[in-house]
Design a protein that fits this description.
Layout (H helix, E strand, L loop, with lengths): L1 E9 L8 H16 L5 E3 L10 H5 L5 H7 L6 H13 L2 E10 L3 E9 L5 E6 L23 E3 L2 E5 L8 H9 L4 E6 L5 H14 L3 E5 L2 E6 L2 E7 L4 E9 L4 H30 L1
Parallel strand pairs: 1-2, 2-3, 7-8, 8-9
Antiparallel strand pairs: 1-12, 3-4, 4-5, 6-7, 9-10, 10-11
Helix pairs in contact: 1-4
Length: 275
Amino acid sequence: MYQSVKASAISLKPIKWDKASNADKLEAFFVEAAKDTPQLILATEGVLEGYVVMDVIEGKAAPEAMLEIAEPLDGAYIHRFRRLAKQLKTCLCFGFAERCGTASVYNSAVFIDTNGEICGTYHKTQFAEGTHPSWNFNCIGETIRAFDTPFGRAGILICNDRWNPLIARTLVLDGAQFLLIPSYGSKGKSQNQTVLARARENGVPIVEANVGMNLIINKGEIVVYKWGNDQISTANIEIPALPSTEAARRAEQEYLQAQGPEMEARYRKTTDRLR
């Protein structure tokens, strides 16, 4: 009913506007995390450019600067991490500002498999800072889709997306068997409760890499919670099988086979109380 996968989260804090240094740091942390032989490593939101959109909104930088630093999906930095995933034989996922076409930037995340192939991308659809039709540097995502990975179907939520139950539910209805959350946001108790709720509502494990905090939830319980920037956290997650008659019959038999001994134990407790 479940596939066990070892996953790592990295609470990497990037430097704003320093793409080259951030890429070097990200690679070093991926290499370090890979020493524990995880099958999947997740890093934070906006990790290449340093999540600089607020600088543009606040007038500290021009929209053209955001467009210039944003990385196309076929860009040199993405190719670099595609090669690294193949070298490490580990799936990699991280967030970055993605340039689409010549004049649009999306808050994006990419999932790369062990062959260096891109399994899927996601564009953030819910912004704490909002958006405006005139902005080309903070475009809102237009689809919410799961995608196939070596471990089954995955869904990505980016930071503020986690607060909206419908986004996670849409991904799971599209077949997502586990959720990944690259984040650069709240680390308070309410965010932990929210991510835990998303896992329990949908019956799927969640790996979150937040700047300043890692969180891994498995079978509806927190199995990793680590505070601090630039920390690596690793745990096994149990990815559930997709709904099917075959999976249902396996679960049925597992449950029924355990009931004989369980009911006998309960009977003994009942009779002991009656003595």
